[in-house]
């Protein structure tokens, strides 16, 4: 299991605390420092069953500068969104846990973290 975190994020710290309390084995990826490639973002999107706009933090300053709220959310724009996430990793929703069964979850709640641990 791997968890993508921003250490400054309270939801990330909460998820780590819960994983530790449950004795889960996991690897931490500080995704702002170890930025995911476009291929890694595509992979995690497939594991999540989501589209890039579904995991984009549209309230971030970079999102506003890029005008992401106005970008089309369709198949022809998908690669543009993925490129934006790779170029501006702060836009990626967090934390994301990749589970042992090949799936992933956006672990913003305790229930989502527990779901990832049960997979």
Automatic annotation (TrEMBL):
UniProt keyword terms in alphabetical order: Oxidoreductase
InterPro entries: Arsenate_reductase (IPR006659), Arsenate_reductase-like (IPR006660), Thioredoxin-like_sf (IPR036249)
One Pfam family named in its UniProt record: ArsC
Domain of life: Bacteria
GO molecular function, one term: arsenate reductase (glutaredoxin) activity
PROSITE patterns registered for this protein in UniProt: ARSC
Protein family membership: Belongs to the ArsC family.
Name of the protein in its database record: Arsenate reductase family protein
């Amino acid at each position: 299991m791997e968890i993508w975190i921003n250490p400054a994020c309270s939801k990330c710290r909460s998820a780590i605390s819960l994983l530790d309390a449950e004795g889960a084995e996991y690897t931490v990826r500080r995704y702002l420092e170890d930025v995911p490639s476009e291929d890694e973002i595509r992979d995690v999107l497939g594991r999540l069953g989501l589209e890039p706009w579904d995991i984009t933090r549209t309230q971030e300053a970079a999102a506003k500068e890029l005008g992401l709220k106005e970008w089309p959310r369709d198949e022809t724009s998908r690669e543009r969104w993925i490129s934006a996430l790779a170029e501006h990793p702060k836009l990626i929703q967090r934390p994301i846990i990749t589970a042992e069964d090949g799936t992933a979850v956006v672990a913003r709640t305790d229930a989502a973290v527990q779901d990832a641990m049960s997979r």
